[in-house]
Amino acid sequence: MKIALIGAGNLATVLGHALCNAQHDIVQVYSRTMAAANLLAEKLNAVPTDSLDEITNDADLYIIALKDSILDAVIDKICPVRSDKLFVHTAGSVPIDVFRRRAVHYGVFYPMQTFSKTRIVDFRNIPVFLEADSYLTMQTISDVAQSVSNNVRELSSADRRYLHLAAVWACNYANHCYDMAAEVLQKVGLPFNIMLPLTDETARKVHELSPHEAQTGPAIRYDENIIEAQMQLMDDNPRAQQLYQLMAQSIYEKSKK
After folding, report:
1. With pLDDT > 70 as the criterion, what percentage of the chain qualifies?
2. Domain residue extents for the chain
3. CA-CA to 81 of 20 to 30 Å: which in 41, 173, 180, 197?
4. What residue range is the signal peptide (predicted)?
5. 42 near 5, Cβ under 8 Å?
């Protein structure tokens, strides 16, 4: 299938390589900057562009992998003039209705994973959640999804909001906790990699236990001596103290349910 990638960021880069490996033809890569478009297009043997006015008409599928905040404007620019084409976006929190009255054939292609351009991931293990305007569109994007992933599911926009919220908790906020831990370690000259056996085991445990069952630590028993002592270590960072206290209370309260 001929595919135009509208975007050259983390997700577009990883997805583009997966599509290329699945023998799809990436005909064009768009990015706001020509440098980024060139970088990815060269790897995918595609034509780069930094102009929405120069988006090709010679693609079967247009995958819009851009920031949520600019999706609406980009869709309004490129979809109405290509009404016979198939468009999907990759955003977890943007409803399918963003295409309504702008495109005839449209859907959502949401790979639930954290992506970085420099990290190679096995796309086969990444769940891809689909939504489409029609049965025919669903068949088409499902074929594309199944060519790169072994875990493809249909999910409505309403339900995808909750999936995306769960992903933010499990990934983005968890990583922020890693960043907070790294700041603490810097105070005593320790590298974050000493935490990796701990973080790895924490992740492995939830393959076998529910997160509720896997929870440990002073907050689950609300050990006030430890909690207060650790709060004092953060006297120079009131925001960290606030987050720590809220997390401790939440863990303790959930442990009682």
Report:
1. 100
2. 2-155, 160-255
3. 41
4. none
5. no
Amino acid making up residue 122: D
Alpha carbon 44 to its chain's center:
21
Distance CA 61, CA 137 (A): 10
Q: DSSP assignment of the chain, as one string?
A: -EEEEE--SHHHHHHHHHHHHTT-EEEEEE-SSHHHHHHHHHHHT-EEES-GGG--S--SEEEE---HHHHHHHHHHHSGGGTTSEEEE--SSS-GGGGTTT-SEEEEEEE-S---TT----GGGS-EEEEESSHHHHHHHHHHHHHH-S-EEE--HHHHHHHHHHHIIIIIIHHHHHHHHHHHHHTTT--GGGGHHHHHHHHHHTTTS-HHHH--STTTTT-HHHHHHHHHTTTT-HHHHHHHHHHHHHHHHHHT-
Half-sphere exposure of 257 (CA within 13 A, CB side): 7
- pLDDT tens digits for 179-190? 999 999 999 999
Q: How far is CA 112 from the centre of its chain?
A: 5
Q: What is the CATH number of domain 160-255?
A: 1.10.1040.20
**How far from 200 is each of 95, 120, 136, 215, CA to CA, in Å?**
34, 18, 42, 14
Q: Is 2-155 a domain of CATH 2.60.40.420?
A: no
- Minimum mean pLDDT range among 90-94, 174-178, 253-257: 253-257
DSSP 37-93: HHHHHHHHT-EEES-GGG--S--SEEEE---HHHHHHHHHHHSGGGTTSEEEE--SS
Q: What are phi and psi of 146, to 5 degrees?
A: -70, -20
d(CA 50, CA 33) in angstroms, rounded, equals: 5
